[in-house]
Amino acid sequence: MGYASAAKQYKKNQIETASPKQLVILLYEGAIKYIRLSELALENKDFSKVNTNLQKAQDIVTELMVSLNHQDGQNAIASDLEAMYSFILNQLLQANLQKDQEKMVQSRRLMSELLEAWTSI
C-alpha cells in the first residue's frame, strides 16, 4: 500500500469513527486548508486551482450551514453561526469571482477563530 493510499485510508477511518464535535473540527480544518491552498495558487497565478480549492471550501461551509440544529433551545447560537457561515460563504464566493486574496485571508482567519472556539469546548 502506497503512502497516498494509506493516508487516504487513515483519513477515511478518522472520519468514520469521529464524534460529532470531531467532525465539525475536521470540517473547519478542511476549509482552512482549502482556503490556504487557494491563496497559494493565487500567488502562483494558477486560477484553476484557486477556483477548485475555493469551491471545496465553499462546499464545506455549506455543509456546516445545513448541519446546524435550530432546535433544542440553541436557536440563538445556531442563528449566529448561520449568519457567520453565510458571511464566510459570501466572502469565498466574492474571493473566487474577483480573485481577491484579502477576502480569502479574512475567511481563513474567521474559520480559524471558529476552529479555536470548537476545540476549546
UniProtKB/TrEMBL annotation:
Keyword Ribonucleoprotein assigned: no
Specify one Pfam family. FliS
Signal sequence: where? none
Q: Output the Gene Ontology cellular-component terms.
A: cytosol
Subcellular location(s) per record: Cytoplasm, Cytosol
The record lists the membrane-crossing segments as none
Taxonomy, superkingdom: Bacteria
- Its Gene Ontology biological processes? bacterial-type flagellum assembly; bacterial-type flagellum-dependent cell motility
Q: Which UniProt keywords apply?
A: Bacterial flagellum biogenesis, Cell projection, Chaperone, Cilium, Cytoplasm, Flagellum
The cross-references to SUPFAM superfamilies, in alphabetical order and at most eight, read: Flagellar export chaperone FliS (SSF101116)
- Mind telling me which NCBIfam families this protein's record contains? fliS
Xref: PANTHER family: FLAGELLAR SECRETION CHAPERONE FLIS
Q: Which family does it belong to?
A: Belongs to the FliS family.
Under which name does UniProt file this protein? Answer: Flagellar protein FliS
Supply the source organism for this entry.
Alkalibacterium subtropicum
